[in-house]
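Archive maintenance. Older records in this collection stored only the sequence; we are now back-filling the structure field for every entry so that each record is complete. The fields below show one back-filled record exactly as it appears after the update. Entries are processed alphabetically, and NAD(P)H dehydrogenase subunit J is next in the queue.

ARCHIVE ENTRY
Title: NAD(P)H dehydrogenase subunit J
Organism field: Paranoxybacillus vitaminiphilus
Length field: 340
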Amino acid sequence: MSDEKDLQQLKKEAAERAKQLARERMAAKKETEQTEQTLEKTVSLNEEVEAKQEKTAEKDDDLELAKKKAAAAAKAKAAALAKQKAKEAEQSGESADSDELAKQKAIAAAKAKAAAAAKAKAAALAKQQAQEGNNAEASEDEIAKAKAKAIAAAKAKAAAAAKAKAAQAQASETPKQEEKPSPNQVYLDKYVKVIKEHLGEDVLEDAYINRLSKDVPTLVAKKDTYYKIAQFLKYNEQLGFDYLSDLHGTDFQTHMEVYVHLYSYKNNQSVALKVKIDRDNPEIDSLVPLWPGANWPECEAYDLLGIQFKGHPNLIRIFLGENWVGHPLRKDYEPYDVEV
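Back-filled structure field:
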């Protein structure tokens, strides 16, 4: 049965390691998803910047085309004005010199007007381009930050994956440290074997080495076999536990438990005998007929926990008195008089 408990403990540890690995894998997966989302945003920002750059190039082409159109319009207008002035000069009989002067003035005025219009349009386009350039620079900064963030996330993801892989490799390579068998295991096996041979296979509820109490071999009896096992432990020639060194009770809220520690002077060995009893009706056989030393410990358990020991010669309260209400070591105990 001790081997079964060790196996259960090993299974529990393996399950905990599996859960830890699953958590690390989930964290790595989450970081991967975040990295992919960041990269998608980066690609989207790149596409937006490229689109804005294309629009800016198209506007530059529009500006050149507008300049050419303005110049052509100015030339056409100047030619028309010159033609009209020449016609008027012929009709009024003005001299050829006056005609040429008017023509030059008209051409100059038309050119000045066209140049002013082209300059104003160019200034407006330059202003718009400058604004879009600032936006493009801001977008480039955002792209740079996004790239840096994506690189950092990728590095973190790689580090987490490497850590998880190393932990997994270490878990698979590290040999399981088996717990050393207790030196008292041979005695526990002997007690269990002798008891089952004489009293039957189903008289014990459990048997194990109590690592928390100096590796004492521990037998857990059923309620109806508790007294019979205790009697066998005392009078069997191979066992001979003739001294009761301790008896006490414990409230576990779901049930109560009586613990008995026995010692064999003949074999220089000890054993613990335990039994679980109903909490609402805590009643069990008294061991006073077998070991008179159980008298006062059973009275103490009755006084503080309310456990009834059948067959006890004089079960009384030894600390609190018969008029005391309740049993102080019960987990649900409430003082009858809070002032006391």
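Update note: Residues 10 and 176 are 9 Å apart (CA to CA). The domain at 184-310 is CATH 3.30.460.80 (Beta Polymerase; domain 2).
Entry marked complete.
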